[in-house]
Amino acid sequence: MNVVVLTGPESSGKSWLASELQQRFGGIVVGEYVRHFIDSQQRDTCYADISTIARGQLAWEDAAREQRPHLLILDTHLLSNILWSRTLFGDCPDWMEPALLAREYHLHLLLDPRGVEWVGDGQRCQPDLTERLAFYQGCAQWLAANGQNTVEIAGTWHQRQRSAINCVANWLGISRQPLG
Q: Which CATH number fits domain 2-172: 3.40.50.300, 2.60.120.1440, 3.30.470.20, 3.10.310.10?
């Protein structure tokens, strides 16, 4: 099983690219549990929710892993939960980083917030590019510090799509097919 993670700040195209990759290569996409949590609770999150959200994300990931798809595409993983917890609440439950490091992820596509417009959706809270860049840099620093295989994805929506598809095709050893 090959595991690819889309990571980076909000409104940088993670969910959209996860869907594009699944359409192109098959596999299973695991979405963001926090979106489900907020929709079901109908309120903003608080620090007490962080472990519940992180465990929900892990449960969704584990359920997908049990199916043993040839490609597992994660719209996010615990790194986003960790960084959001620190950003919003100044702290993070101690168990989360070791839990993240204990899992195997083969490729991280790190999405740069520059080059695309922020799109509000009722859950997003960082319309300021400076805040999204700080989150992006936090992701980049953590991934580098922990030796994670990372490719940065940037540019317009079309450039992101092309870069992500070509990157995953090369990583999987599939000859590239022209984008229509």
A: 3.40.50.300
